[in-house]
Amino acid sequence: MIELRTPAEIEQMEPAGRFVASVLTATAAAAKVGVNLLSLDKLAHDMIRAAGAESCYIDYHPSFGASPFGKVICTSVNDAVLHGLPHDYALRDGDLLTLDFAASVNGWVSDSALSIVVGTPRDEDLKLIDTTTRALAAGIAAAQAGNKIGDISAAIAAVGHGDGYTINTDFGGHGVGRTMHGDPHIPNDGRAGRGLPLRPGLVIAIEPWFLHTTNRIVTDADGWTLRSADGSRGAHMEHTIAITEDGPLILTKRD
After folding, report:
1. Phi and psi for 223 in degrees, rounded to 5?
2. For residues 45 and 197, is the Cβ–Cβ distance under 8 A?
């Protein structure tokens, strides 16, 4: 079911957006060569406790997950691009790391992600991150009242295809509200002018993700982490936004 939020409810969602942004900022700053993924998860967990927030991940067990997630942040490294389950791994120089985090504050959820390079970057990784960042910006710019879901999808795809990447549509954006995942689904490729009309009060997460040389993914042995089928690296960017009469409002904007 698709729910529209009142201006007052969108204002009530803003603390969750700010908190999610603060956790991503802190964990990205802490992600240095030699730092363990479990330490990043602990940092996020400590911030959740200190803020009186609730994790959206730790007990999360959708049909595509092998078991409850058990951690509070997704840490996807190199050829992993989505749902990376934190484990005993020390970050290495040149690792491409995606951090994806969602939490509930006062009963309202926000969801966001970013990709960074730890230590010395590869040019192809910087390009991939740049393309994904610009695709997110394009998708947000298309999230205007009166447009349609397909306009967001087409805007994301134009950037990704324009830079030579193929696009997987199995996982994409989604509705956000009292829970982390809701309707509508927002694929990262589509036709402009098609799909659900965008109305003020719709709150959604827009999340382009691309892989260097494939659009096929496989599930890791942990039952959660999604990796590229050919071992190429991936990047993922995400913001939770509210559609308003005055244009898209980014709830998870980072300083």
Report:
1. 80, 5
2. no
Contact status, residue 137 vs residue 206, Cβ threshold 8 Å: no
**Antiparallel, parallel or unpaired: β 80-82 and 226-228:** antiparallel
Among 82, 92, 101, 84, which residue's Cα sits nearest to residue 35?
Answer: 92
**What pLDDT does residue 104 have?**
98
Q: What domains appear along the chain, each with residue ranges and CATH number?
A: 7-250 (3.90.230.10)
Single-letter amino acid, residue 77 = V
Q: Which of 122, 106, 123 is nearest to 19 (CA)?
A: 106
For 84-110, the pLDDT digits (tens) are: 999 999 999 999 999 999 999 999 999
pLDDT in tens, 7-31: 999 999 999 999 999 999 999 999 9
pLDDT above 70 coverage of the chain, percent? 100
List, in order, residues 6 or more apart from 78 with CB less than 8 Å away: 95, 96, 233
Take residue 222 and report the two structure tokens written for it: 């942990």
What token pair was written down for 164? 């030579």
pLDDT confidence of residue 113: 98
* The pair of three-digit structure tokens given for residue 27, joined into one six-digit string: 């964990």
